[in-house]
Amino acid sequence: MNKDSTRYANAALALRIGLGLVFVIGGLSKLSLLLSSSKQAAMVANYMGTTGYINELFQDFLFSNGVLSPWFFLTSLSTFELVSGIALIAGFMVRPLTLFYGLLLWTFVFSLPVDTVPGASVGVKTYTSPAMFVQVRDITLSGMMFVLFNLGAGARSLDLRRGQGSGNAAPNWDVLGLLLRFSLGVTFIIGGFFGAYAKIPSFATYQIILALIGLVLIFGQGTSLKVAAGAVVLVMAWYMLQKLNLDKGVIANLNGVKREFALAAAGLVLMRLGGGDLFTLSDCVRRTKETLGIQTSPSAVGHQSKP
Q1: End-to-end CA distance of the chain, in Å?
Q2: Bridge partners of residue 127, in order along the sequence
Q3: Which residues contact 91 (CB under 8 A, 6 or more apart)?
Q4: Contact predicate 127/108, CB 8 Å
Q5: Rounded alpha-carbon distances, angstroms, from residue 105 to 102, 109, 133, 209
Q6: Reduced to 3 states, what is the DSSP secondary structure of residue 127?
Q7: Which one of 12, 49, 229, 264 has the fewest CB atoms closer than 10 angstroms to its CB?
Q8: What CA dihedral angle connects 228, 275, 153 and 79, to 10 degrees?
Q9: 131 contact partners, CB below 8 Å, separation of at least 6
Q10: Taking each helix axis from N to C terminus, what angle separates 222-243 and 207-219, rounded to the nearest 10 degrees?
């Protein structure tokens, strides 16, 4: 395995662990409540209530036939969440799982109950920010899933031992780096510009700092991009410390910062590999000049001169 292949394999390992921890922690936390006779009713009510995660459209679609119960649905989903998180960390069936979760994570955005009608009040407590803003970290996780899908299982994976860990061709990191930095950057952009609104993650950090990190992640390259990626890791570490509550158990504490493990992993990968050169600020300027006929790049001239 050459040096570049090793770097990509290690990047896949970091993403696997970060994403896998999200589902292992989330699955353990939910199952510990759903399987408790004294807590399961409150857990189901929490998910089905006006500040839960399943709006009326999805509740009617899933449960109106009387065959599927909310408790069975949540318990089954949480069990799968735990098992698939362990599989991701171990590097087993990575591509099928990442493809599945890359799409599934968007359903959490669509199913969130929200009220954003100007001047209207439904008389109950619910989410009052756009669902995409509230669930922006899940959008980031979805993008990370598709990056990992293309990288393959990577280093120290069961898939690799079975000969299914990576494709034969080297990944196009310009494309994957673009997807990873955009996916990560959008969480910081939303937190930076809208973090003062209800239920939008701001990571216990000044909004201007989040906005700057997000903008550099989206448009930066080279050293500036790697500095922003390092800042992501620091912000995640700071937020985890702020969320630590000694009155809660280990699982409850981890559940409060589970997505942040994945965001930190994405930051580490961008620190190591960069974010590619596609649609950075300089690339956007170059493309704009070429489109307007102000400047023609040497590569474009060379391409046109070829037979």
Answers
A1: 37
A2: 114
A3: 13, 16, 153, 154, 156, 157, 158, 159, 160, 165
A4: no
A5: 6, 7, 14, 27
A6: strand
A7: 49
A8: 50
A9: 109, 110, 112, 114
A10: 140
Q: How many CB atoms lie within 10 A of CB 90?
A: 16
Close Cβ partners of 71 (under 8 Å, ≥ 6 residues apart): 34, 40, 44
- Reading the chain (307 residues) residue by residue, the pLDDT tens digits are 678 889 999 999 999 999 999 999 999 999 999 999 999 999 999 999 999 999 999 999 999 988 999 999 999 999 999 999 999 999 999 999 999 999 999 999 999 999 999 988 888 999 999 999 999 999 999 999 999 999 999 999 999 998 776 655 789 999 999 999 999 999 999 999 999 999 999 999 999 999 999 999 999 999 999 999 999 999 999 999 999 999 999 999 999 999 999 999 999 999 999 999 999 999 999 999 999 998 655 554 444 444 4
Sign for the CA dihedral angle at 249, 251, 252, 253 comes to: positive
Residue 95 tokens, joined = 């591509």
- Name the one residue in this structure whose structure tokens are 């955009």: 182
Rounded Cα distance, 129 and 105, in Å: 18
3-state secondary structure of 21: helix
Q: What is the pLDDT of residue 300?
A: 47
Q: Which residue has the tokens 């599934």?
A: 104
192: Cβ contacts below 8 Å, ≥ 6 apart: 207, 208, 209, 210, 211, 212, 213, 214
Q: Which amino acid is at 186?
A: V
